[in-house]
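User: Can you help me understand a structure? I only have the sequence.
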Amino acid sequence: MQDGSSIPCARVHQVSKLFGSFAALRQVSVDLEAGKCYVLIGENGAGKSTLLRILAGLLLPTHGTVSLFGNQEPHDVRDRIGYMSHAPMLYDELTGEENLSYFRSLYPSRPCLEPAEALRQVGLDPGLNRTFGQYSQGMRQRTSLARVLLPMPELLLLDEPFSNMDVESVSQMVQLLARFRQGNRTIVITTHQRESAAPIADWVLRLQAGRVAAFEPGSPTL
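Assistant: Let's start by predicting it. Here is the structure, written out as tokens:
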């Protein structure tokens, strides 16, 4: 299934993922165009997170192929991918800036944002003298997003980024993602809150029992 792009940022072709006898994904095919935002929806167990992890190179498909940036495999271009999981993957005993300074050191050969700049981009004060463990849920989500923005990825994969956030925090994050997408970067979001992502959704992909049930154009307003 294609969205009309001749040179997709990512191409998923006939991908299936088996965990024992359970099929998390069943022959999924989709092309993701650079500079677009794709929203993955579906019930729990539909395969959304599995597809995201395969795109991130964290899982290998059982069958089928995934190529990024012109036929490169995901695990070969991980520094060009930003992946935000359910877990924040940050240290509770460190401040936001200390956390980001550590993660920036993991990209020695790639130009990165300064930790303070990444925090400012998500609306946080880099000088806040409070450990990550003391942050509110909204602040934790923003800091997690700042972490994945550090290496200025070309493909941003966000797993339930609006989870447990209040309405104002969701609105601010959506506006931030709209700015990020304007740099011709691709965003893929999994969410149970389709309406939250609607302002930036160029395409909506609905998974059902591991299969593509619908692939429809969105109506972005940002």
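Now, to help you interpret it: The radius of gyration is 17 Å. The longest helix spans residues 167-181. Let me know which part you'd like to focus on.
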